[in-house]
Here is the input.
Amino acid sequence: MRKVAIIGAGMTKFGEEWGRGFRDLIIEAGKASLEDAKLQGEEIEALFVGTMASGSLIGQEHTGALIADFMGLTPIPSTRVEAACASGGVALRQGFMAVASGMHDIVAVGGVEKMTDVDGGNVALALGGAGDQEWELFTGATFPGIYAMMARRHMLEYGTTEEQLASVAVKNHKNASMNKYAQFQNEITIDTVLKSKQVASPLKVFDCSPVTDGAAAVILCPLDKAQKYCEKPVEIIASAQASDTLALHGRRSLSSIYATQVAAKNAYAMAKLQPKDIQVAEVHDCFTIAEIMAIEDLGFFASGKGGKATEEGKTALNSDISINTSGGLKGCGHPVGATGVKQAVEIAWQLRGSAGARQAKDAQIGLTHNVGGSGATAVVHIYKKAF
Amino acid sequence: MRKVAIIGAGMTKFGEEWGRGFRDLIIEAGKASLEDAKLQGEEIEALFVGTMASGSLIGQEHTGALIADFMGLTPIPSTRVEAACASGGVALRQGFMAVASGMHDIVAVGGVEKMTDVDGGNVALALGGAGDQEWELFTGATFPGIYAMMARRHMLEYGTTEEQLASVAVKNHKNASMNKYAQFQNEITIDTVLKSKQVASPLKVFDCSPVTDGAAAVILCPLDKAQKYCEKPVEIIASAQASDTLALHGRRSLSSIYATQVAAKNAYAMAKLQPKDIQVAEVHDCFTIAEIMAIEDLGFFASGKGGKATEEGKTALNSDISINTSGGLKGCGHPVGATGVKQAVEIAWQLRGSAGARQAKDAQIGLTHNVGGSGATAVVHIYKKAF
Here is the structure.
């Protein structure tokens, strides 16, 4: 397989973008990534896009062709992939394979979701399709309830506290306050979280990522051609994906995500690296408990130690490991199909040293971790500065 | 890139399967393909599945993970791709790339759609998401209307007749009468078609493919390992995909599908073959006019000559070229996400010589052609007997 590099990265501001539609968002992100790579567009040979629920949210399927059309990129092959909230990460992996295989040289990967065109009830129904509709959604188990069960189990097994959960949100809001693309650019306190409305005990409003519109895109090419387009290419040194049961009741554990553990193990093996080699990581904090499980499952901290580590500041910017410098899903927002690609954009910026006030010092190796549903899909990519 | 072969193929009966759900269908097809390749399941390294509109039709996204789960194949990576009615063909292409790249050895590719769980109006809305919802669906242009416009234009430019359109349906029902997996196993006459109810003039009920439940699957592996699993492997010698505008109003022609022409040209170049080298082809006859355009755009007949050729029997079984031996989408049925994979199953059976009464004599080279929407995606694969 050929080595693959990111040569362009761009995204929209994440937020409730009432004035803009699905098409506007992905075009803005796509153009930003092309301009970043100093490309006109005609160099792109294939397009992969992650979108989770455009059928339910805006009445539109076939979004691969839609984007090729509205980006003016027809007749290149354009493919939508869907893996719930991991759609963006899986799209990145398809783009990686297309370049690695030799099938295509320059490939664009996008992620996009327009979530605010329908009301909250319909958003919950659409997102519920990420879980097992027959066993979970149709019996009333929506995602806050599902992650609340995981949080309760983590608290029972390891003594994780509500304050430790809250410390994830506080850190991620702080990072987001330094990110002009983030939905929430305000700092919060532990008290903000603890006193916010109950959603599904122990998770409160500020333990949950928001409903968000947004898009992100990266441009990939073979590493040996990357310097032609980009002074600071970032190599993707590992790409791994794993699956698990769709419903929570089939899992071997409720306090960890097995698909993350498998994808991480395979990614570390592919990169010939260990968790301690990672300086900066974007992990899937759809709920605060999800970040705590992620930093344990990815091997950054031992099982059960993630809450305490976060509370002690070990995952803050420029501490032991800089986790979710972008603000994560909690602070930056979570347009479900876009998130996995946005994570790659943030890591590309971090490894290039262009992340401004939220720059992780001397970042050489980065990681992204994107989860679908309650953990039925996990995708892990590892990146290396290649200049 | 490595050479890739099909070592297993299976499908469910297509039809209105009231007693079976989405999961039952894909499991049956998946098991049939595994048994055909004499595999237990644990040999599978990755899974790709085409599903168009499970979110709208059964309230379920994340179908890649769902299928890995219910097939007992976790924790392997499992990815859903969606390109409207070309979802199956695009899934096959992702599986092809995964093996060709060296990323995976044994890969399963599935396609599935459960369409009869909602009423006809909701099916039309869900399928409308294959076109441009802002410019077409929301103004009332559903798919029969869109293809009717293409039929009218073809009739205007080339003098194609309603009888010629009908002759596509008559041939495909005849082929389907020899296929135990087909939804319609009854022969019809030109009069059956001409006297059936108007849907969108000039298209009548018998010019349209039906609403169908069904699933299909194939197993892929590197060609040099294929003999280990399969006495009669079939090599995939070309895979090409192209895009075009989502809405009809943006196209350069209404009487041909440009994405098919581009994908075909690229596929023939990759296979180093010409249209005359193909003996058997499954083409995308979602409406009778679609088959006429397909056999022209694929280069089997000159532009405007497809209707006459069909009427003269040149596309019948064991004539100039055997088109849609399975019965096509018209006779075999069209579970949208499954169709592209079913086409590959039929060609694998034809090249192995196991198609029974509908066997094309001495078939050495086959082709599949799968279209998304009204032509915004087209996928062409070419296959060669490899034993």
